């Protein structure tokens, strides 16, 4: 099909599946052009085709809307149920992370080591208003209302959000979870078993290591470039030498390095894994927190075999108070849905409905633009402050999105010693030990720059610089 025919078919499919309902407004021509990397004339031609078919209608000065329809396509049938899987134990890296997270709660501590975003710019009061209003209107919910895959309206809003970002998804594939962490754990359970080897980036986000450890699997750390992501070449060699059950990656604004994997490398990674029939779990929680002019693509966009299990949440972009995430597990949808039921039974309905109401009625994009602008400014400010206050030999990452900075300290500086000294001064940092099962990053730290820049934060960075200089001088003496 031509480009405009493909776009028209995607939109028509979303209407048929109920992602777009009668009267819903389509993304503007300009917005669709930017998100899909299409010319405006191509988008206009697609919209014109849909209008001629009676799928949408144009309204002067308002845009394009879904026309009323007499019937909707039926929901696709579910895939066969999956067999039960076995859980295993957890190991030391989890205890280190738990200890580190507890220190973040230290009263008055500067939260540079926090993995969580500053909640102050998030629309928590507005979402709470929706939750309270919903609770007053409907007081007779039962557990049956919360069963997987999740609240239908929230699922529709998630599917619509993906569509607006250029990825048409099947709503029947979406499973709502208790945050992205549960989504990752469920997806890993669905594709691998205790004793299996799982390939990960190095360094990698510790929640992914937790999932591997908890289930008695082995993490195989693959070299990862700070600009291009996991080495596809190294992974290709590994796959010729040993069996790998699955791969887990963060291609968009990876935690802790903040890189954005180029589209060509994303496609290459998906094609490599597909050639070996290996599933890949994509952690995409920072997808909405990009700094450029348009959102990034996801691995899911290049998946033709249902092997990409896409995981995300609203915790990093909208509210962490309601831990609402979701998975798009591809060919493993039935397994993940069953495991969701067996592991946690339900995801509470009220938070799902409140977020759905906000997405439907309020300015999510306006909120995101403000957050992105603040993060991008603070990323530059924190990087400049670290290079100014820390000793020679310090290097910093160049985040393309998200809100964390990866810092390489001078050789020989022990990040765990820095962590302890900083905590005595009520400053928290994320030591590099947390991001590798092998302890590969002893002289690295991760810093959070989501909080409003202040004199307190600047003084904390100045103090960290002094401490790093002291540790470096002790090492050299």
TrEMBL record:
- InterPro entries the record matches: Aminotransferase_I/II_large (IPR004839), HTH_trans_reg/aminotransferase (IPR051446), PyrdxlP-dep_Trfase (IPR015424), PyrdxlP-dep_Trfase_major (IPR015421), PyrdxlP-dep_Trfase_small (IPR015422), Tscrpt_reg_HTH_GntR (IPR000524), WH-like_DNA-bd_sf (IPR036388), WH_DNA-bd_sf (IPR036390)
UniProt-listed CDD domains: AAT_like (cd00609), WHTH_GntR (cd07377)
Q: Which residues form the HTH gntR-type domain?
A: 1-69
Keyword Transmembrane helix (UniProt): no
Q: Tell me the PROSITE patterns matching this sequence.
A: HTH_GNTR
Query: Under the GO molecular function aspect, what terms does this record hold?
Result: DNA binding; DNA-binding transcription factor activity; pyridoxal phosphate binding; transaminase activity
Coiled coil feature spans: none
Q: Which domain of life is it from?
A: Bacteria
Keywords, alphabetical: Aminotransferase, DNA-binding, Pyridoxal phosphate, Transcription, Transcription regulation, Transferase
Protein name as annotated: PLP-dependent aminotransferase family protein
Species name for this entry? Rugamonas brunnea
């Amino acid at each position: 099909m031509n480009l405009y025919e493909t776009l028209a078919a995607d939109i028509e499919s979303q209407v048929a599946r109920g992602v777009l309902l009668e009267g819903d407004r389509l993304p503007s021509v300009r917005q669709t052009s930017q998100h899909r990397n299409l010319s405006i004339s191509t988008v206009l031609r697609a919209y014109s085709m849909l209008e001629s078919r009676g799928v949408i209608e144009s309204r002067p000065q308002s845009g394009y809307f879904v026309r009323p329809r007499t019937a909707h396509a039926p929901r696709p049938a579910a895939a066969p149920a999956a067999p039960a899987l076995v859980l295993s134990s957890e190991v030391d890296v989890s205890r280190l992370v738990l200890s580190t997270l507890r220190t973040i709660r230290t009263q008055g501590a500067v939260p540079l080591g926090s993995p969580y975003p500053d909640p102050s710019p998030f629309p928590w009061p507005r979402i709470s208003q929706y939750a309270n209003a919903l609770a007053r209107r409907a007081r007779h919910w039962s557990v049956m209302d919360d069963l997987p895959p999740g609240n239908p309206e929230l699922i529709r809003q998630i599917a619509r959000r993906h569509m607006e970002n250029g990825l048409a998804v099947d709503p029947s594939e979406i499973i709502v979870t208790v945050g992205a962490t549960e989504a990752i754990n469920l997806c890993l359970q669905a594709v691998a078993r205790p004793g299996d080897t799982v390939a990960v980036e190095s360094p990698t986000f510790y929640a992914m290591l937790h999932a591997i450890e908890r289930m008695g699997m082995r993490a195989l750390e693959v070299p990862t470039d700070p600009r291009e992501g996991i080495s596809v070449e190294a992974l290709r060699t590994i796959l010729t030498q040993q069996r790998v059950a699955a791969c887990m990656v963060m291609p968009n604004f990876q935690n802790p390095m903040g890189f954005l994997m180029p589209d060509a490398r994303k496609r290459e990674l998906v094609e490599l894994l597909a050639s070996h029939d290996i599933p890949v779990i994509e952690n995409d929680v920072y997808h909405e927190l990009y700094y450029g002019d348009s959102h990034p693509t996801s691995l899911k966009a290049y998946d033709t075999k249902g092997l990409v299990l896409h995981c995300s949440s609203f915790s990093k972009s909208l509210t962490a108070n309601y831990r609402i995430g979701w998975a798009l597990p591809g060919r493993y949808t039935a397994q993940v849905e069953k495991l969701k039921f067996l592991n946690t039974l339900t995801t509470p309905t009220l938070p799902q409905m409140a977020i759905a109401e906000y997405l439907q009625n309020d300015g999510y994009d306006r909120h995101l633009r403000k957050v992105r602008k603040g993060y991008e400014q603070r990323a530059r400010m924190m990087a400049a402050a670290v290079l100014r206050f820390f000793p020679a030999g310090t290097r910093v990452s160049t985040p393309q999105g998200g809100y964390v900075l990866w810092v390489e300290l001078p050789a020989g500086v022990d990040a765990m010693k820095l962590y302890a000294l900083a905590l005595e001064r009520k400053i928290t940092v994320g030591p590099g030990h947390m991001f590798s099962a092998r302890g590969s990053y002893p002289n690295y730290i991760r810093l959070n720059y989501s909080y409003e820049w202040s004199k307190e934060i600047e003084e904390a960075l100045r103090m960290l610089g002094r401490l790093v200089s002291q540790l470096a001088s002790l090492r050299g003496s």
